[in-house]
């Protein structure tokens, strides 16, 4: 396919029965962002056409853009990635015989900013406190950790529930403890870690107000 050609046929297919050559790889994209798929196939014979396939349907989507097309490489980008874009993509080089290359696109669901609930100010010394941290929309399920004045609290409850779309998760964690006068003014925080956050966790904080008896 000449470099200058703009109207390149793109296909998508989940399975192909006539595969004779496969190159497997994986790619990850963030929901709402950009995903890139690149295929390289050794040049053998004369190609009549080249394209990406998935689920047996032509790629007629304005979000999909051709990045590079040559005799040995075809790259496409998918903007505003959605969860439904996840799956196996096959690049086909229509030579004799047909050559193919596969890549699996994994779409990550970015967790929403966490919220802490359950605190009613002020709290009397000796009363039991239950603080719950919750976040939705993560794929795979996010991890929640609790801290009190930057010291991690390990004894917590963790709950994972599948969202209505059956693809993302809502996770919550509950911190249960007795209020102590030494906790007055302490900062309790819950930290959400997820691979989509690029090592920058999302954090929610609550300052405790404890009254002595």
UniProtKB/TrEMBL annotation:
Ig-like domain residues: 114-206
A single GO BP: homophilic cell adhesion via plasma membrane adhesion molecules
Pfam families linked to this entry: C2-set_2
Top-rank taxon: Eukaryota
Gene3D superfamilies (alphabetical): Immunoglobulins
KW Disulfide bond (keyword) present: yes
Entry GO terms, CC: neuronal cell body membrane
Keyword vocabulary terms for this entry: Disulfide bond
PANTHER family tied to this protein: CELL ADHESION MOLECULE 2, IG-LIKE DOMAIN-CONTAINING PROTEIN
Descriptive protein name: Ig-like domain-containing protein
Originating species: Callipepla squamata
């Amino acid at each position: 396919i000449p470099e200058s050609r703009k109207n390149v046929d793109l296909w998508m297919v989940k399975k192909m029965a006539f595969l004779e050559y496969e190159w497997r790889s994986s790619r990850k994209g963030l929901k709402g962002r950009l995903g890139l798929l690149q295929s390289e196939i050794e040049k053998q014979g004369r190609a009549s056409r080249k394209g990406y396939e998935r689920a047996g349907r032509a790629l007629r989507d304005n979000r999909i853009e051709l990045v590079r097309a040559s005799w040995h490489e075809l790259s496409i980008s998918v903007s505003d990635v959605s969860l439904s874009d996840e799956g196996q993509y096959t690049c086909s080089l229509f030579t004799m015989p047909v050559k193919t290359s596969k890549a699996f696109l994994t779409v990550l669901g970015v967790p929403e900013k966490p919220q802490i609930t359950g605190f009613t100010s002020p709290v009397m010394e000796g009363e039991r406190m239950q603080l719950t941290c919750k976040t939705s929309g993560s794929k795979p399920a996010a991890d929640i950790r609790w801290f009190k004045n930057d010291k991690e609290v390990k004894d917590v409850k963790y709950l994972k529930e599948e969202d209505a779309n059956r693809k993302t998760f809502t996770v919550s964690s509950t911190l249960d403890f007795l209020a102590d006068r030494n906790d007055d003014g302490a900062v309790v925080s819950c930290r959400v870690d997820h691979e989509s956050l690029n090592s920058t966790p999302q954090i929610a904080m609550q300052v405790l107000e404890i009254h002595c008896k």
